[in-house]
């Protein structure tokens, strides 16, 4: 038989994760993307540093942001199951 444990600390932690993810963290990533796209426009910002930003800095950063956003959205879909499992293991809400 495997051990099942659900402490108040676990319940609090899952609620905090839900609050952070649902509280706009992915929206902030979208806002960063929007500003990065603006800075990537040579009609808005140009020059050697702007070229480096457009050519490597922003594409690398955008890829990392996209990955983080995708993973957060996947976590969001799993949070309900995770929290339900924790609450069930702990005997209720």
TrEMBL record:
Domain of life: Bacteria
Protein name: Pyrophosphorylase
């Amino acid at each position: 038989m495997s051990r099942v444990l659900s402490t108040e600390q676990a319940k609090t932690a899952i609620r905090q994760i839900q609050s952070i993810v649902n509280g706009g963290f992915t929206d902030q990533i979208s806002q960063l993307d929007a500003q990065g796209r603006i800075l990537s426009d040579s009609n808005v910002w140009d020059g050697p540093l702007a070229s480096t930003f457009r050519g490597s800095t922003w594409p690398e950063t955008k890829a990392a942001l996209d990955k983080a956003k995708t993973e957060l959205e996947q976590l969001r879909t799993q949070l309900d199951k995770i929290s339900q499992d924790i609450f069930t293991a702990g005997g209720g809400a």
